[in-house]
Amino acid sequence: MSDVFKAIADPTRREILLMLMEDANNIGQIAENFEMTRPAIAKHIKILQNAKLIAIEADHTDSRQRNCYVQLEALSEVQDYLALLEKFWKAKLKGLGTYLSKQKKT
Amino acid sequence: MKNEIKFTVQYDVPLHEVWKAISTKEAISEWLMPCTIEAVVGNKFQFKTKPFPGFNGIIDCTVLEVVEKQLLSFSWSGGSLKKTKVSFKLKELESKTILEFEHSGFEGLLNKIIVRKILSNGWKTKILPVLLRKYLEKK
């Protein structure tokens, strides 16, 4: 099995990806959220990193801390999709306004 | 990174008229898409719209919450979206109506896109598509 496939096949790693989508976090913060030990989380992080799904960078204020980020390429596609979906709903709910004022007249 | 679509709209009509428009199939079919909804918790219904490549034009829904004249929500699965949630909340304000709209639950979409990204990033071996299909069918 390839590293990448193995990386996303695990539900904990998918959860870590979703969590990192919201914000960059260091391994300690991630471990707290999952009630897992740091070494266990570090192992998951390593697999995600090897699969190039996340990147790791030293913290600006504390260089001992390593922050994890989701690679943005996949995420921008989600954002594009959501932007289109938001447009769809805004247009439809504007249409609801037109529908309501038409009902009022009749 | 935001993970839901959320906004409010104001309509210059009394609340009961907006409630009728968002909770009856005749009205929803007119302003949104043709559907068969009955505003009863557990009701399974479909929206039908024009299909396009990758989407068969059908959205499967189940009514999740109904609070008369206040709240209607249903699940929304179709195309790339699996088990997302759409909700309409109503509030009256001086004979006008505020509608709070929310569409949430896009975690599955991210999974799907990540899978697609990986496949497009040169992982097109003979074995991977087979394993991946098995994995997706299990879900």
Low-confidence stretches of chain B: 121-128
Note the total helix count of chain B: 4
Beta-strand residue fraction of chain A: 5-15%
Shape of chain B: globular
Percentage of residues assigned to helices of chain A: 55-70%
Oligomer: heterodimer
Average residue pLDDT of chain B: 84
- The count of β-strands of chain A is 3
Low-confidence stretches of chain A: none
- Write the element-wise H/E pattern of chain A from the N-terminal end onward: HHEHHEEH
Q: Work out the radius of gyration of chain B.
A: 18 Å
Features of this protein?
heterodimer, A: 106 residues, mainly alpha, three-stranded antiparallel β-sheet, B: 139 residues, 6 strands, 30% helix, globular
Give the topology:
The complex is a heterodimer of chains A (106) and B (139).
Chain A: H1 3-9, H2 11-22, E1 25-26, H3 27-34, H4 38-50, E2 54-58, E3 66-70, H5 72-105
Helix pairs in contact in A: 1-4, 3-4
Chain B: E1 4-11, H1 15-23, H2 25-31, E2 44-48, E3 58-67, E4 71-78, E5 81-93, E6 96-104, H3 107-120, H4 127-138
Antiparallel strand pairs in B: 1-6, 2-3, 3-4, 4-5, 5-6
Helix pairs in contact in B: 1-2
Question: How is this structure best described in words?
Answer:
- The complex is a heterodimer of chains A (106) and B (139).
- Chain A has 106 residues and is mainly α.
- Helices cover 70% and strands 11% of the residues of chain A.
- In chain A, a hairpin with a 7-residue loop joins β2 and β3.
- The radius of gyration of chain A is 21 Å and the shape is elongated.
- Chain A starts with a helix and ends with a helix.
- The model of chain A has no long low-confidence stretch (mean pLDDT 81).
- Chain B contains 4 helices and 6 strands; from the N terminus they run βααβββββαα.
- Chain B has helices spanning 15-23, 25-31, 107-120, 127-138; strands at residues 4-11, 44-48, 58-67, 71-78, 81-93, 96-104.
- Chain B has a 6-stranded antiparallel β-sheet, covered by helices on one side.
- In chain B, α1 crosses α2 (25-31).
- The radius of gyration of chain B is 18 Å and the shape is globular.
- Classes of the chains: A mainly alpha (106), B alpha+beta (139).
